[in-house]
Amino acid sequence: MVRRVRGIARSLVMYHGIPGRSRRLQRFYREFLGPGRLGFDIGAHVGSRTRAWRKLGAEVIAVEPQPDCLAVLRWLFRRDEGVTIVPLAVGARPGRVQLRVSTATPTVSSASPEWTETVSRDRRFAGVEWDATIDVEVTTLDALIARHGEPAFCKIDVEGFEVEVLAGLSRPLRALSFEYLPQAHDQALEALRLVDELGAAAGGYRYNYSPVETMRLVSEHWLDAEQLLRVLDRVRPGGRSSDIYARLTGE
Fold it and tell me: Within 10 Å of residue 84's Cβ, how many Cβ atoms?
């Protein structure tokens, strides 16, 4: 219990306790979301992005399977009708999955055994222990869209399960992001391939890259997939978690 309390407290401090962080999130996401638009926060954790998006006037579907994080989300947005909390994981097909939980560092809990095995070999994860497993229900992006509508922006941050999430999407979205971790480079490339294939029928995606929660894009111009790969080759030695952003050409 003590580890759980400390873990969720750590997340609250990290994502809600840094002065100015919410304002930076709002400035950054204003390019994608605003009043009347819908955002999907897949892997909402303790709701920092959900909170920023609501301040922009967007409606938010916050999807999170971890019970402790869900308790925080339900408390933070208990009076906010603009936030719908979905207590599920997202994957390639409906069903159930085993979520490996790190009670001390819940931000790295994952439904991907391959991902946890890969990153655990890196020194930056030396202190991380996945010490609990819970069985969670899985939905798909297609099912969420059928129920709630198509989002203007979809954030996917699910610690190595991004490929599974994208495999449950059959249409291109206007804009989305997914996590990039250099230690799991091959998994990220597969996610990029799926996104690129989805976008092909709608004119294609352009890409950008935001390092380590900086809330800034590294390129002044949006890039094609090959240009993005060259950026990733440059940043891989740093080994820090970041995000890849994609938007349809013309958006």
Answer: 16
Give the other-Cβ count within 10 Å of 200's Cβ. 11
Identify the sign of the CA torsion 16, 50, 247, 198. Answer: positive
Number of Cα atoms under 13 Å in the Cβ half of residue 214: 12
Is the Cβ–Cβ distance between 197 and 163 less than 8 Å? no
83-86 and 153-156: which strand pairing? unpaired
Rounded Cα gap, residues 209 and 217, in angstroms: 5
CATH of the domain at 33: 3.40.50.150
Task: Note down the domain range covering 66.
Answer: 2-248
- Report yes or no: 4 and 68 within 8 Å, Cβ to Cβ: yes
Buried b (16+ CB within 10 A) or exposed e, 22-31: beebbebbee
Q: Is 178 exposed, middle or buried, given 0-12, 13-18 or 19+ CB atoms closer than 10 A?
A: buried
DSSP state of 79: T
Please list the ranges in the chain whose pLDDT falls under 50.
none
Residue with tokens 């603009």: 82
Total domains present in the chain: 1
CB-CB contact of 152 with 161 (8 Å): no
pLDDT in tens, 210-220: 988 889 999 99
Alpha carbon distance 229, 223 (integer Å): 10
pLDDT at 42: 98
